[in-house]
Amino acid sequence: MTPNGAIVLAAVLVGGAMLTRDLVGLAALSLFCLGFGAIELRGRTVRALAWSAAIMAPLAAFMAVVWVGVVGRSPGEIAAGVTGTRAAALTHVTVICTRLFLIALVTQLVILRFADMTPLAFTRALRAPVVLKKLIALTLSWIDTILHAVDRSRTALITAGVITPRFSARNAANGWILVQTVWLSVITIAIGRLRDKWPAENTLARLDEALAAPAPPFRIGDGAWIAAAIAAVATARVV
Amino acid sequence: MLTTPRLIVIALCAALNFSIGTIVYLVKLPIYLDSIGTILCALLLASDRKVAFVCAWLAATVSTIISVLINPFIPWFALTDMTIALVSAFATSAAVASFRARPMRTGAFIGSVVLYGVLTGIAAGIVSALIVAYVFGGVTGSGSAAIVALYLRLGFTVETASLLSGLTIEPVDKTLQVMLAALLYRATPREFVAMLQAPMPAAEAR
Fold it and tell me: How far is CA A104 from CA A57, A58, A119, A230, B74, in A?
């Protein structure tokens, strides 16, 4: 499967999850995703399931407390102005949580499917305008630079007694100084790269060349998975 | 429109949007601050508002694309990002003079921050409410869920409760974000801002 095929597949499945309104349909889509994972990712499917469950658990708990515990009736019942039941509220929470779990699972399956590719190789393989690919590559580079700047600035400001390592009133008052210090540090690096380093190394032209390479064409596997996903969405809508 | 310095600032602001969560986490503050880069991008390019909007929107979009790796639900708020870029480029950017005035005119600075923060918050709150109501069923994992629950308990529909919750929380959050973006804009060297104004095509910049 190619990265572009995987992105189209994810879009079909996420769109399908949004259109499907009942638990049976969502369960059918989940089964399809598990089938995709078992064939394309094998053992890593468990990781995708665990990650999706971990990201959904707090949200599900929150929703259950709000809808079942506090509100005690479903949105339909609120709109109709009837008393409502906690069972209907629980059904509403289950449908929403299953849908969001499915979206998280699809995203994670696609990410893990290409976990062996570097971010630059993945970006390069996308069918997207070169400017967008260049922006993604540059942003990934700047994120590292900013995170390093955060480490340095935080250590310096803690040493200077401006902020503290844990939650404190001083952090609330001086947190903006950390943000400003990080920004100034990064801007200084940006000016240096723009004015001296990148022109000397011809970095941006070389990045352009790397990203302008044509994306790999869709393969039969892409088409088969996308067709199967469309069929699964149609089935989920019918059942 | 997209000269090399502008591409760099879009990427920088997108990275700032993404990374600021780490900073907030380290400082242990109960806020989100996920659009500072978008607002800052609009301020840095305020001299041409159309360019400011396009660049701020691109910064928000790129950070959203990358954030999918961490949070698969962020793309649903792409329309909110566009709204923030729009308000920042066509409204907040009108205050760049008071944001950069030296010495700082405290009254004008605070007044502008509150005015445009509340404006951004209201716009973002209205757009986000629709997404929260229809995609998340009215409740996200954030602290605002408690306010949604309160409004639902009072008998409001999901849509109205999400809207009222957004209008309660967003103006406060966005005022903080406009304040931080204004402080960063104020601290940005004049040399860097000047590099962004030059109509230099990307090819020449190399």
Answer: 12, 14, 20, 19, 11
Which sequence spans correspond to the domains of chain B?
Answer: 4-205
Is B102 touching A (CB cutoff 8 A)? no
Residue A37 tokens read as: 């994972």
Cβ contacts of A182 on chain B, cutoff 8 Å: 23
Q: Are A95 and A25 in contact (CB under 8 A)?
A: no
Place of tokens 């900013």: A146
- Expressed in angstroms, the distance from the first to the final Cα of chain B is 16
Closest by alpha carbon to A110, among A222, A20, A18, A216? Answer: A222
Residues 6+ apart with CB under 8 A from A193: A203, B8
User: B136 contacts in A (CB within 8 Å)?
Assistant: 96, 100
> CA A231 to CA A237: how far, in whole Å?
10
Residue of B25, B57, B113, B139 to mutate, interface with A, max A Cβ within 10 Å: B139
Contact criterion met (CB < 8 Å) for B188 and A187: yes
Contact A150 B23 (CB under 8 A): yes
Based on the number of CB atoms within 10 Å of its own CB, is B157 exposed (0-12), middle (13-18) or buried (19 or more)? middle
B190 to chain A, any CB pair closer than 8 A? The answer is no
In this complex, do A204 and B206 lie within 8 Å of one another by their Cβ atoms? yes
Task: Identify the CATH class of B4-205.
Answer: mainly alpha
pLDDT at position B52: 96
Quick: pLDDT tens for A169-206: 998 899 889 889 999 999 999 999 998 999 999 999 99
B contacts of A62 (beta carbons < 8 Å): 139-141, 145
In which residue ranges of chain B is pLDDT below 50?
Answer: 202-206
| C-beta atoms of B65 and A131 within 8 A | no
Q: Do B147 and B185 touch, CB atoms closer than 8 A?
A: no
Give the closest residue to B165 by CA, choosing from B187, B203, B135, B132: B132
Instruction: Give the ipTM of the model, two decimals please.
Output: 0.83
Domain locations in chain A? 3-119+216-238, 130-212
Nearest CA in chain B to A208: B203
